[in-house]
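Recall from the previous chapter that SMILES is a line notation for molecules. Here it describes copper (II) ion.
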Amino acid sequence: MTDTDVRPADAPGRGRPHPLDPATAEEYLAGREILAGAGLLPDTARFAYYGLAEPPKDQVLAGAPDRRLRAFLIDVTTGQSADVVVSLGEDRVVSRRVLDPPSDGQLPIINEDFAVVEAVVRADPAWRAAMARRGLTDVTKIRACPITAGSFGGPDEDGRRMVRVLAFRQERERDYVWAHPVDGIAAYVDLVERRVFKIVDEFEAPVPGEPGDYDDPAVRGPLREGLRPIEITQPEGPSFTLDGRLLRWQGWSMRIGFDAREGLSLHQISLEDAGRARPLIYRASVPEMIVPYGDPRFRYWQAYFDTGEYLLGKWTNSLERGCDCLGEIAYLDATITDDFGAPRVIRNAVCIHEEDFGILWKHTDIFNGSAQTRRQRRLVVSFWSTVGNYDYGFYWYFYLDGTIEHEIKMTGALFTSSYPGGDYPHTAEVAPGLGGPVHQHLFSARLDMTVDGAANAVEEVDVGGLPVGPGNPYGNAIAQTVTRLRSESQARRRCDGARGRTWRVVSTERVNRFGRPTGYTLYPESAPTLLASPESSLHARAGFAAYHLWVTRYDPAQRYPAGDFVNQHPGGAGLPAFVAGDRDIDGADIVLWHTFGPTHFPRPEDWPVMPVARCGFTLKPTGFFDRNPALDVPPPPGGHC
Ligand SMILES: [Cu+2]
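With both inputs in hand, we obtain:
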């Protein structure tokens, strides 16, 4: 599925980890022994998730808390699923909760599920007969693509651990299957019974034939010429330092976390100002995303929560110098586990490097003759994950002027269908007879803000022109409208591009030299929120995506925007449940949740492999500093600019 370089963990015996460091190989093994000692690991047990149970903020700030691991355990013969926490310090199981799947949902997909589904489907007589009717008699040339099922109720699905399986033709080795969807048919597979329990055969359509093998010169054509080398050299090395997982650069300081579920996380981000570290974000990550498809036919259920259902961090790529990152690179490995809780190291999982970023500031003054130019640069912390057909790069950027950006790069293969012909409104034709169904990529960033301390508040800032009247006789007046968001229910907000809407996080304890609260502003990209109908199952399950902004009061248990157990969850969990108590958020320890990402009507140019599309958001200091904080950046060497 990916070219992730996974190798057995060598177990280096280093010192005690920082409370926010990811679980180590030794810790995973120690936790497994505790689970086995408690009788929780029969041969039929699998780990659907295994990672650090991150300690609550107060414990981290108070000093070395207990190291705990959280395991989602499933018995593959009964489907019994449990959420278990073990204490490494106390050498015991701290808690164990058995899930009730109809109300709690199912644990994430495990590696073994991927492995068994194809054989199960190929062996099913009804599915083979349906393929034979389509002229496909050699089932070894049909690839099965298991997709999380969603939650649509009904007696034959309620509580059943299952996937829905679409099919693609693969004529030969390395044939690009996304070019050849076998449309109109889905097999529903029970993952515990390991059998097809239902076939939905809605229509037959010709399998598109044009190959999409973009790495085959016969398909791709000759390589272009004229691209001369660009080489990034940093003769004195990079300007950042990495001490264990503590990263420092130009006043910025942060700890680098990693987890099998959400991938990269950044902790305790602060920025030095006049010799003192000013806190900004206690924890930043993208803990959920959803890719819902908009074709209402038999594939109406197609929507992936790549993080909560598939554990995006588990599919992290091993990065290569000169391919994924240029320049002086520092890599961090990631240690995850397999279905049996055995540690595996993903080599070069997180890339840390610096980039030149054009002009930082520049002015040629017409009156005093000063002509000055400064170069911007940024610190980049990134990782890539391949989940099924798509590849996602998650990039955090830190700039010399205090700006933070998050950018997601989306590339890879479209999930294709056949093209129905005519002007079918839900699918674009991307190759002859080949459809690229419309879909959304909606990400949720969780930003546990600590702007100059934990006591923060959020203001919504709109801009607009004012009507002609007293005080505005010529109609040129422009003003900001600032609305304080005081409660969780009031803080469910949507972007408004026509008003240039932003959200400003302010300290309720510190002021700048103007006596105004210090702050950081979230600049969103205006794009549609979840387009699935409010009456849909998907809307209930992905309630977080119905708004661009949520603000909640910090609660260490509230980590995942669609809830802890997303797979087949009936809905209502996560952010909608978090804000049900409508807590006060003015002057509190608050968490910002930001939904962003494109609605993607594929273009012919997105086929057969899609050029990177980007989305993200920006955080900029707003009265956090008393003036431009980058006046002290020296001019480029050489004295000529
Ligand atoms: Cu897309």
